[in-house]
Amino acid sequence: MHRMTRHHVWTLLLAIATLTALATPAAAAAPKIPLPDIEIVPPAEKGKQAPFCSTTTGPHQKALERYLKLTPDGKQSPADCAAIQRFQDTYDIWPDTGYAGPVTWMAAKLAYAQEHPNDKNRCHPAPRVICIDLTRQILWLQQDTKTVYGPIPIRTGTDAYATRAGTHKVYLRNVDHWSTIYDAPMPYAQFFDGGQAVHGSYGSLFSPSGSHGCVNLHYEEAKALWAKTKKGDTVHVFGRKPAE
Prior knowledge:
Blueprint: H1 6-23, H2 61-67, H3 78-90, H4 102-113, E1 126-133, E2 138-144, E3 146-153, E4 166-169, E5 172-179, E6 184-193, E7 196-201, E8 215-218, H5 219-228, E9 234-238
Parallel strand pairs: 1-9, 7-8
Antiparallel strand pairs: 1-2, 2-3, 4-9, 5-6, 6-7
């Protein structure tokens, strides 16, 4: 019998570790939520260093309580904060203070929408259609009934400049458009109804909370959507933007 050398021992241990890793199922990762935005901090808590547990009731308190299966009383509590904080940590939302703000609520909506983008069949099938859900403030791209891109977060018009619902066609595309009305960039602009277009935004989608009627996307997502669409594609806008 051959004597096992130190080299043989290390080789055997490495083989065992590799086989164990292959045989052990990886922990289920949270679905990717494309949110580069930073969660807002209530004025009374500005200057505090995260992590800490927010005592302030957020604008989406009751909605997040329902989503996380907490008591939906619309009031922040230590239990609410801890649950919201865990959700924020799962989706890398910062600062993770347990505050029920717009970025956290959007992440919850996206987490659900990734499994059920067209759950009420509001977006009409077409060979290729950009689906814009005003109610949930999300967009996805559909081919017939199959989702091929998204859903992703969006920002649509304010009450004074509402994004118009209806079925349209992309009639003009401009990769480097500049708005002469608002003196602002509109990268990867795809116009579908008069001056209203889907286009990229360099800033946050949550501040300010509404556009002048266009559908704003994060820059990289507008670029990705551009590559998957073309002039003449259908754009279906439906629902109603929630009151601010």
